[in-house]
Amino acid sequence: MSGKTIYVGNLNYRRDEKGIMFLFSKYGYIQEIKIPLDPKTKLKKGLAFVHMPNGKDADKAIAALNGMEVDGRTLKVSEAIESIDFKINATGDKKDKQKKKDDKEDKLVKMMSERRTKRKKGQLPKLLEFLESRQK
Q1: Per-residue pLDDT for the chain (136 aa), expressed as one digit of tens each?
Q2: Which of the chain's ends, N or C, has fewer CB atoms near its CB within 10 Å?
Q3: How would you list the strands of the sheet with 32-34, edge to edge?
Q4: Distance (Å, rounded) from C-alpha 67 to C-alpha 53?
Q5: Are 24 and 52 in contact (CB under 8 A)?
Q6: CA separation for the pair 35, 14 (Å, rounded)
Q7: Nearest to 43 by CA among 67, 11, 75, 69
């Protein structure tokens, strides 16, 4: 994608794509808007990424909107960091975290099972000795 991606932070959580479009469309054509959701709650995070194909329009939007109060909140608007641009994949992060959690649980279950087996093996001879001594 050519042009610039703009980071918009400190958004009111009720602000949707139409509201963001309304703010930015004054400065030029908007190619795409992304509003990331929290992977756990599926609620908006209060930020968005706006891609404008014309870099000059993006610069105008950044200059005009950064620090502006919208919906009772002061916007933080800047050019997005290259590594973050539209690569936010909440479901991927969730899958990775869930896999790690599942792996930890599997290890814990295996460890507990091994401990029970060792404990049973270690206690069996003692139990047999005790039973034999009671029979005498």
Answers
A1: 578 999 999 999 999 999 999 999 999 999 999 999 988 898 999 999 999 999 999 999 999 999 999 999 999 999 998 644 444 444 445 556 666 666 766 776 676 666 665 555 566 666 667 777 777 6
A2: C
A3: 32-34, 47-52, 4-9, 76-79
A4: 23
A5: yes
A6: 11
A7: 11
For the question of whether the overall pTM of this predicted structure is more than 0.85, the answer is no
In the chain, the amino acid numbered 21 is M
Instruction: Say if strands 47-52 and 4-9 run parallel, antiparallel, or are unpaired.
Output: antiparallel
> What's the token pair of residue 1?
């994608």
Structure tokens given for 81: 């960091």
Structure tokens given for 57: 């329009």
Identify whether the C-beta of residue 52 lies closer than 8 Å to the C-beta of residue 31.
Answer: yes
